[in-house]
Amino acid sequence: MPSRSCRAPLLALGILLVALTAGAAALTDPTRPTGRGHAALLQPHAQRHDWRLDSTLVAPDRRVAVINGRQVSEGESVDGARVIEIRRLEVLIQARGRQLTLQLLPDIVQQQP
Questions:
Q1: N or C: more exposed end of the chain, with fewer CB within 10 A?
Q2: Tens of pLDDT along 27-86?
Q3: How far apart are CA 44 and CA 110, in angstroms?
Q4: Alpha helix (H) ranges present in the chain?
């Protein structure tokens, strides 16, 4: 049996390891998607029922959008929707027999005069 002077550092080391592993469980990866975006990534592409506009690029020679993490141009399809028109802050898509407008930063767009 280890002497009392040897057990104290081992006990302290054990407590430290338990504390570190308990604290590590509370840490989250800041680069991991959260909320609805993360749940959408887990669903099969064919079963998605919503589209998220991540970014747009409107230049004189090309128009590109990133929808649900995929880069698309006008006329292309993403997750069951066809891209009709790419504008600076929004994209018009055709899906399930109707036209929808996806807005980039919808909260900010609504607040602009």
A1: C
A2: 566 666 655 544 444 444 444 458 999 999 999 999 999 999 999 999 999 999 999 999
A3: 31
A4: 4-26, 35-42, 106-111
